[in-house]
Amino acid sequence: MNKEKTSNHIDNEGFYGEFGGAFIPEMLHPNIEELKSSYINIIEAEEFQKEFKELLRNYVGRPTPIYHAKRLSEHYQTQIFLKREDLCHTGAHKINNALGQILLAQKLNKTRIIAETGAGQHGVATATACALMGMKCVVYMGAVDVERQAPNVARMKMLGAEVIPVESGSKTLKDATNEAIRDWITNPRDTHYIIGSVVGPHPYPDLVARLQSVISEEIMSQMPEEPSHIIACVGGGSNAIGAFYHFLDKEQVELIGVEAAGKGIHSNETAATLTLGNTGVLHASMTTLLQTKDGQVIEPHSISAGLDYPGIGPQHAHLHQNKRVKYVSATDDEAVKAAFLLTQKEGIIPALESAHAFAYLEQQKWKSTDRVLINLSGRGDKDLSTYTKYNPY
Ligand SMILES: *Cc1c(COP(=O)(O)O)cnc(C)c1O
Prior knowledge:
Order of helices and strands: EEHHEHEHEHEHHEHEHHEHEHEEHEHHEH
Number of domains: 2
Bound molecules: pyridoxal-5'-phosphate
Radius of gyration: 19 Å
Strand content: 15-25%
Number of helices: 16
Strand order of the largest sheet: 3-4-14-9-10-13
Shape: globular
């Protein structure tokens, strides 16, 4: 690429520079074509926007506040603000996407919803949206994850979803995603597949980014004085894109994505995709992923199940390449320490995923005049047993 600056957004073919696209089997074409040709018209229509905004306001509890964290600011000798996605109904940003996509599914006359889930957060958000709309819900989840995320499995079942344990491969998120895609091929007419992050074939990365962009839309109107930095954790990358979206073309705002380094970049137990990965196709998208020389996907590791993914959304791969966003990583230890610090300074227990964003505060020298906005993507109730077992002090 020899252009000095490349666009930060999607092009007409569904690519971000060399990343993105839809590398799908023939049998998935009708589903993807239907979605591709209709998603923008549907979600930009006045009726959709009215319904979506109303749900976000009265059901999710948006706009989520921006909180000036005074004691944490004092600790780091700078000004720190938190975007409180942890206060959303169901405890994280994922509900924004699930509700947007279920409205889209209704406009496409779909009656059955499928989803993949790792930690169970996206499964819970999707099962919640389905209960709300009275739609049938099937969630694919790796058998290992079903085992270690029992409370979320119970929540999904109480919400009326059918949870199908996936026994193939490593029995985790990547295998659940493969299984969901297989289901969709078999049931193209009545089923919509709600992907949980800015990953998968075009148009999903752009669709999910647009639905999550409500986060940065709110930040713009809630912070009349612009932030100098916006920090978000990156798994697939949906809360980060949501927080960055309306700032991508404002070069004066520094954007930072924090990946999970797991036990360390050089430990072989890591999920730092952009730091260590290279280009390839994962889940029908050209992106950056952790793979061996002969193209086998490497099993990632992170203490936080929501960041434990071997790929990353193609828009992030592009924003890494054109350097608009700075990508860094934080280890399990650093994340847990940051979570304890936030909890004891501010009385807010973050999700383990979000704790990675806070860990970056330790890695940079801050100026007293900086205005650092951290996207607090979710709450930590689900992670209490990990926190108590792992207490680094
Ligand atoms: C799922 C999850 C993430 C990771 O997903 P992204 O698509 O990268 O946002 C981050 N934080 C929380 C609280 C989550 O539940």
